[in-house]
Design goal:
By secondary structure, the protein is mostly helical. The protein is built from 17 helices and two strands. It starts with a helix and ends with a helix. It is found in: Membrane.
Length: 472
């Protein structure tokens, strides 16, 4: 391995990249426990080998071609600035150890996200990446189906043996549900935006059906009732602008409606046949209790300065009170930091040290608030501005009118990435934290890769068109 890395070839690095993103989604399922708090996962091994190979190639060749990533230069610049700001924030952090750990996560996830556009420098690599991710996604979903029947959980799962819950390769059901809502837009759009063989179309269709079943089995309210509908709404708005109007025939519309109805019937039959009475009852109570969840949020004061020593459990459980108080406590700590942020990863230590409002959790359970509280207003505003700009650029690449030069593959990627990242606006409040939630970072990277390839295609074909006009 050392001899190979001394003179690394591009294909060897690409293979390491494919392994890295595959193991990134599979998480701690594939790894070796080293200590009680550290697991040497295959993802970390692949990440280190890939980073080492790139560094060796840079040293030996004295260059690293990245000019094709020019369309996402502002994102690169921001993440570099974010990392520097995170490092500086350790000077006022109450827990340097927690800050360093968070900084390592931020650095690794940022590098992984930008490795997607770095290695997807052409459509071949882009398509290969999508195929590998689909295979991993299908594996996660299929095991989720098996888990719901056998109630056998993988080691990373927090569920106990025999417990009627579905987590697949993740630690909890909310992480699995968020992964599914990020992946479903790519599944749905591939069925009618890509030219596929019938067998491949059927494989993708049933993977989507199984994914919907597993999503319902998780009982995740934020993903099932908010994130997925928002992603579907984004698709409904975008698709008419991304496809030739001639394809919107009554026949094709009828096929789509039939596919939806058949999927609904299959999911319902699977729920009745496979889910235990306990699992169905638990999911039903969660979905039916959505109104009660928001009602519980209204209990108690919304003033961050009002202290609350006693934890008030709502009728729908601890979640409403926890989520509300976590946000209010976070904003209180943010104010005390003069809106500069409490420091990288330091909201959790602060949340565990007598916060103004009682909580039973220390993780923020809200990615957007987590960024705001840890890093302050400056980083938050920049992050959100670039996030919205990414959605806008994907929207323009998806539209036939504004980007007729874009290939069908990249247009599909733009539509799916736009819907997935739009749905994550709500999906981001499901996981306890997203700093090491790899499905989100991979999806973010796919959005960047789509922008890089789409903008390059537009530029290249515009140049060709100008040259043809000059020679005419």
């Amino acid at each position: 391995m050392v001899n190979e890395l001394l003179e690394p070839r591009q294909n060897r690095l690409e293979n390491l990249f494919y392994l890295m993103i595959a193991f990134a989604l599979l998480g701690p399922t594939f790894g070796i426990p080293v200590t009680q708090g550290f697991n040497l996962t295959f993802f970390r091994v692949a990440f280190i080998l890939l980073a080492g190979g790139i560094i060796i190639r840079l040293v030996m060749r004295k260059e690293l071609k990245t000019s094709y990533m020019y369309p996402v230069r502002w994102y690169v610049g921001f993440f570099v600035f974010w990392l520097i700001y995170a490092l500086v924030s350790l000077t006022w952090a109450v827990s340097v150890n927690a800050g360093i750990k968070y900084l390592v996560y931020l650095g690794m996830m940022s590098v992984m996200a930008f490795s997607v556009p770095f290695f997807c420098y052409n459509e071949k690599n882009y398509w290969m990446t999508k195929r590998i991710l689909f295979g991993v996604f299908a594996t996660i979903v299929v095991f989720g189906v098996f888990e719901s029947i056998a109630l056998i959980h993988l080691p990373p799962s927090r569920a106990e043996v025999g417990q009627a819950t579905v987590t697949s390769v993740f630690t909890n059901q909310n992480d699995l549900a968020t992964c599914i809502t990020l992946g479903l837009p790519f599944i749905i759009t591939a069925l009618f935006m890509l030219k596929l063989q019938t067998k491949h179309r059927l494989l993708i269709y049933f993977t989507g059906v199984f994914a919907l079943y597993v999503l319902l089995a998780t009982g995740s309210r934020s993903n099932t009732l908010f994130a997925l509908p928002l992603a579907v709404l984004a698709l409904v708005i975008t698709v008419p602008f991304a496809m030739d109007r001639k394809k919107f025939t009554w026949k094709n519309i009828g096929k789509g409606i039939a596919a939806i109805l058949i999927a609904a019937v299959i999911v319902n039959m699977m729920s009745v046949s496979f889910l235990s009475d306990e699992a169905r009852q638990d999911a039903r109570e969660k979905f039916q209790g959505t109104f009660g969840f928001f009602k519980d949020l209204q209990k108690g004061s919304w003033d961050a300065d009002d202290t609350q020593d006693e934890f008030i459990r709502g009728e729908t459980g601890e979640s409403p009170t926890n989520r509300k108080n976590l946000i209010l406590n976070g904003l209180w700590f943010l104010q005390k930091s003069n809106y500069m942020g409490v420091g990288a990863g330091n909201i959790e230590p602060l949340m565990g040290k007598n916060p103004p409002k009682a909580v039973t959790k220390v993780n923020m359970h809200n990615w957007w608030i987590e960024i705001l509280v840890n890093f302050g207003v400056i980083i938050f505003v920049m992050y959100m501005a670039l996030y919205v700009w990414m959605l806008w650029r994907l929207w323009n690449l998806a539209r036939l009118k504004t980007s007729p030069q874009v290939s069908p593959l990249i247009r599909w990627g733009a539509v799916a990435s736009l819907a997935a990242l739009t749905g994550f606006v709500f999906g981001g409040v499901a996981p306890s934290t997203a700093i090491h939630f790899t499905p989100m970072w991979v999806t973010y990277g796919l959005g960047l890769a789509t922008i890089v390839l789409g903008e390059r295609q537009k530029q290249q074909r515009e140049i060709v068109a100008e040259e043809e006009q000059q020679t005419a």
